[in-house]
């Protein structure tokens, strides 16, 4: 079910003095329980982009599985304070999404391999322009175990290529 949450307008809330409650430089993680580019969000996406534009003094971060929709619904260059990462959880999704995502002209290109469900061979791709690669395992009661050797291979490749690497969970 896709809907605006109670915290939708938090970035633009003001105190009694008329000042923003969240100071300049604040970071907002956006739409983490859904996908900002899902079709069901079309009805309120412009409102969210207006908030991002209004708070150009803050940064916003979101993750998508739908890089093909980014240019359909917005021009990322108009939102330099918005970082969009793309999830690519297995080799098939990486092969599909990576070229689409990397061909979008925007300030930040972050790859999220989460949950990492299988070994992914990144060595055969030109990773020029990738700003960070982040890996996480599956979470929840029935989470599949993440093979740490897969993580180490990508970590070592990132180190070799000078790409920042972040590893954040195995199981929870």
Key terms:
single chain, 172 residues, alpha/beta, 6-stranded parallel sheet
Task: Give structural notes.
- By secondary structure, the protein is of the alpha/beta class.
- 27% of the residues lie in helices and 17% in strands.
- It contains four helices and six strands, in the order E-H-E-H-E-H-E-E-H-E.
- It has helices spanning 42-54, 67-73, 91-102, 148-161, and strands spanning 27-29, 59-64, 82-87, 110-113, 132-136, 165-169.
- The protein has a six-stranded parallel beta sheet with strand order 1-2-3-4-5-6.
- The radius of gyration is 17 Å and the shape is globular.
- The two termini are 24 Å apart.
- The mean pLDDT is 94.
Tell me briefly what this model is:
With 172 residues, this protein is an alpha/beta fold. Helix content is 27%, strand content 17%.
Strand order of the largest sheet: 1-2-3-4-5-6
Give the helices and strands as they follow along the chain.
EHEHEHEEHE
User: What is the CA-atom radius of gyration, in angstroms?
Assistant: 17 Å
The major β-sheet equals: 6 strands, parallel
Mean pLDDT value: 94
Number of beta strands = 6
Q: List unreliable stretches of 5+ residues.
A: none
**What's the N-to-C terminus distance?**
24 Å
Quaternary form: single chain
Structure classification = alpha/beta
User: In which range does the helix fraction lie?
Assistant: 25-40%
Per DSSP, the total helix count is 4
Instruction: Tell me the strand percentage band.
Output: 15-25%
């Amino acid at each position: 079910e896709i809907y605006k949450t109670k915290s939708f307008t938090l970035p633009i809330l003001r105190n009694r003095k008329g000042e923003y409650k969240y100071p300049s430089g604040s970071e907002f993680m956006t739409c983490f329980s859904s996908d900002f580019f899902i079709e069901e969000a079309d009805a309120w996406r412009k409102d969210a982009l207006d908030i991002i534009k209004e708070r150009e003094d803050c940064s916003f971060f979101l993750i998508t599985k739908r890089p093909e929709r980014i240019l359909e619904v917005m021009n990322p260059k108009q939102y330099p304070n918005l970082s969009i990462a793309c999830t690519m959880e297995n080799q098939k999704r990486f092969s599909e999404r990576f070229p689409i995502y990397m061909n979008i002209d925007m300030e930040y290109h972050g790859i999220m391999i989460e949950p990492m469900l299988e070994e992914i061979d990144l060595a055969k791709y030109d990773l020029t322009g990738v700003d960070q690669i982040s890996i996480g395992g599956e979470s929840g009661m029935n989470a599949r175990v993440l093979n740490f050797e897969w993580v180490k291979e990508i970590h070592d490749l990132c180190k070799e290529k000078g790409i920042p690497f972040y590893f954040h969970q195995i199981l929870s």
